């Protein structure tokens, strides 16, 4: 099986792995948005007692918080250094109900289909060569009636200005080169991938950043960052 991953992307995040849990590091945006996305997920699919998969978990920021909500969480990623950081943090913080594996989502889908109550795939689709393949694998991994949650970046002029020029070059919220514009995904494209994979769309929300207050909020504006919730029939 050809692995659906870009070696350059994996290397990029591996180089920064030791900084995942520093809230003032390059990963500050992930720390800042995590409470918003956690509550959004939990509001639609209460996490306590659920078996949850976090795809592209990186250093484990979302996976750890979902476990603390009472979920049994498996985090998967192909960036080995980031996974080691996630595992070390779970040990140090004594996070209950969490484990990590270095495996692709497609390989896990072949190994353990329909095994999870919910699957999260946040800030990952814009970093893989074939996002539709990742969506299909996420759909295969969730049980009938289960939830799949995605977040990614829209592809338009405003998204280029805000997510690349603004976030990477002007405000310095992210390292330069974090994102490639042509890998951004329009909501219509992601919705189409979901439908083709047997997922019914439930909700879409935008994620906005105010550079003056340095705060994020969920909104109806999906023109830049957005989250999509889908459910398997």
UniProtKB/TrEMBL annotation:
Superkingdom assignment: Bacteria
Swiss-Prot/TrEMBL keywords: Methyltransferase, S-adenosyl-L-methionine, Transferase, Ubiquinone biosynthesis
An individual GO BP term: methylation
EC number(s) reported in the record: 2.1.1.222, 2.1.1.64
Reaction(s) catalysed (UniProt annotation): a 3-(all-trans-polyprenyl)benzene-1,2-diol + S-adenosyl-L-methionine = a 2-methoxy-6-(all-trans-polyprenyl)phenol + S-adenosyl-L-homocysteine + H(+); a 3-demethylubiquinol + S-adenosyl-L-methionine = a ubiquinol + S-adenosyl-L-homocysteine + H(+)
Binding site for S-adenosyl-L-methionine: 37, 56, 77, 122
Biochemical pathway: Cofactor biosynthesis; ubiquinone biosynthesis
GO molecular function annotation: 2-polyprenyl-6-hydroxyphenol methylase activity; 3-demethylubiquinol 3-O-methyltransferase activity; polyprenyldihydroxybenzoate methyltransferase activity
Presence of keyword Magnesium: no
HAMAP family (UniProt xref): UbiG
PANTHER family: METHYLTRANSFERASE (PTHR43464), UBIQUINONE BIOSYNTHESIS O-METHYLTRANSFERASE, MITOCHONDRIAL (PTHR43464:SF19)
Record protein name field: Ubiquinone biosynthesis O-methyltransferase
